[in-house]
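Technical note accompanying the year-one report. For the benefit of new consortium partners, we illustrate the data format agreed upon in the data management plan: each record pairs a sequence with a structure-token string. No post-processing was applied to the example shown here.
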Amino acid sequence: MQKWINICALRVLALLIVSLLVPSQPATAAECLGGGAVRQAISDGRAKSLVAITQAANAVVRGDVIKANLCSDGGRLVYELVILSRQGNVSRLELDARSGSVISVNGK
């Protein structure tokens, strides 16, 4: 039981450290949507839910999504995800919001 608690505490600490170390990059070409606009885009069918996008991302990079943004980039919606793997690697993924297809992967 103590071992399990220690493992959980280490994971929480790792997530905290990564969230502090991974700079939130202000979008240059993309403008990220707020909560209401995200809900509207999903209900309009212009974007998949975060659950569906996470499943698509985990097919490429296994791990926990520690940051997710839905952004408008050149007239199309994209999800920008930061994923922390169980090995402690940080990956940034960009996925098409409507199809869930991966546009780019950095740090894999």
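Partners are asked to follow this layout when depositing records. The radius of gyration is 15 Å.
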